[in-house]
Each structure stands twice: as C-alpha cells, then as structure tokens.
C-alpha cells in the first residue's frame, strides 16, 4: 500500500510472494491520467543466480568463453570441458585437440551457495590428419534421446537410439573427466538405474562399433 513519486524508485517488500505494482502518470497540462499495472514475484534472493555462456571461436581449435552475461552475486566460476580440463576464471581461452562437437559447461556458485549451470556445444574443425580421422568417427547427437534429464531419485534413465545400432557402449564421466560407468549393450534401448550415480553433473558418450553417435550432459538431482 506504499507509493513513490520518483521516476525510478527502489522498493523493499515486507516478504516474499506475489505483489501488484501500479504505475500512474499524470499530464499536468491537459490533466490526463493513464496507468498500467503488473504482478511481480519477489524471492528471498536479491539477485537470483543465472549462468549464461558467451563464446567466440578464435580459430579452428580455440574457443573464448565468458561468464559476463551471467548475473547474480556469484563468487566462484568453473568451466568444464568434455576433454576433462577445468578453468576457474570469469573468462578463458581453451584449445581442443580433437575435432567435432565439444561440450562446455559453466558452473556458478553465489554467496548463498546457490548453484546454476549453462552449457553450449562448439564445433571444432579439422586441423591435422589425425583429427580428421577422429572427426569422421563422430555423428550428430540427434540420433540419441535420453530422459528424464535431469533425473530424480529412484527414476530409471532411458537412452533411446533412433536408428538401428548394435554393439553399443555407454561411457559416463564426471566433470573432472574421470570415467564413472562403462556399459555395453546390444539393443537400441539402454536403461540405467538412477542409484548408480550420485547427485551431480555428468557427461555421457555413446558409441556403436567405435563410432561416436551421441554426446551430452546428464544431470542427477
């Protein structure tokens, strides 16, 4: 029920929840009045944490990544690359040795120990004959569906390979690049028990006869 006559007031609400904010303008010359209103939701966090990646390819193998478009009072910044390396600066340069699609994950932690993630895939082009061979052994992730993702406790994670494949290999690593699981399968549906993985963020790679047919991020809550 409070009000202000300032053009850009700062208001402190008494508690969290939904509030109605109304703006009224008055034309003092013609004595016209107009108003608009909007419902806002107030949280207990002054600046909610949101991770957002900005990136730019410097050349065929090096990518520049930045957290500058993120917002919130974050204290810790972590960059995780799917080759197992980590950076902990607000922006970083990273060179990949393998061609193909690579996953980059940004993790932010704020002063309230809240955590938020953002991720992006980048395309690394051929830069030598060895990498060209490795690039030919990669196909787009569109052939693979994984759900639920994020996965909750006691849920069964299902991985579906759309086109017929056999001799499947599922490799799951943590954000440090350490291999956690390595499973082989002969059918197009792989079911994975949630209890096999602790809460956290993982990377998965799916191969068929040594051909990479899928890569991505798996979140366990």
What does this structure look like?
There is one protein chain. The protein contains one helix and 16 strands. The protein has one helix at 129-136, and strands at residues 17-27, 32-42, 54-57, 62-66, 74-81, 86-87, 91-95, 100-110, 115-124, 144-147, 156-161, 168-174, 179-185, 189-193, 200-208, 211-220. Strands 6-5-8-9 form a four-stranded antiparallel sheet. Strand 15 and strand 16 (211-220) form a beta hairpin. The protein starts with 16 loop residues before the first strand and ends with a strand. The model is unreliable at 128-142 (pLDDT under 50).
What characteristics describe this protein?
mainly beta, elongated, 4-stranded antiparallel β-sheet, 221 residues
Care to give the gist of this entry?
By secondary structure, the chain is mainly β.
Helix-strand layout with pairing:
Elements: E1 17-27, E2 32-42, E3 54-57, E4 62-66, E5 74-81, E6 86-87, E7 91-95, E8 100-110, E9 115-124, H1 129-136, E10 144-147, E11 156-161, E12 168-174, E13 179-185, E14 189-193, E15 200-208, E16 211-220
Antiparallel strand pairs: 1-2, 3-4, 4-7, 5-6, 5-8, 8-9, 10-11, 11-14, 12-13, 12-15, 15-16
């Amino acid at each position: 029920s409070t009000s202000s006559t300032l053009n850009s007031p700062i208001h402190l609400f008494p508690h969290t929840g939904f509030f109605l904010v109304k703006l009224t303008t008055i034309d003092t010359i013609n004595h016209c009045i107009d108003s608009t209103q909007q419902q806002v939701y107030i949280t207990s966090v002054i600046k909610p944490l949101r991770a957002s990646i900005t990136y730019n390819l410097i050349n065929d193998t090096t990518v520049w990544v930045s957290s500058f478009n993120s917002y919130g009072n974050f204290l810790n910044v972590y960059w995780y690359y799917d080759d197992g390396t980590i950076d902990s600066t607000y922006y970083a340069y990273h060179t990949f040795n393998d061609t193909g699609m690579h996953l980059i994950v940004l993790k932010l932690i704020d002063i309230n120990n809240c955590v938020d993630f953002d991720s992006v895939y980048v395309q690394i082009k051929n830069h030598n004959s060895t990498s060209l061979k490795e690039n030919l052994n990669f196909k787009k992730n569109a052939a693979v569906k994984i759900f639920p993702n994020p996965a909750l406790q006691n849920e069964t994670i299902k991985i579906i390979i759309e086109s017929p494949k056999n001799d499947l290999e599922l490799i799951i690593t943590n954000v440090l690049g350490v291999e956690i699981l390595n499973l082989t399968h002969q059918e197009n549906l792989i079911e994975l028990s949630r209890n096999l993985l602790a809460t956290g963020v993982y990377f998965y790679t799916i191969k068929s006869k040594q051909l990479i047919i899928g890569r991505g991020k798996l979140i366990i809550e």
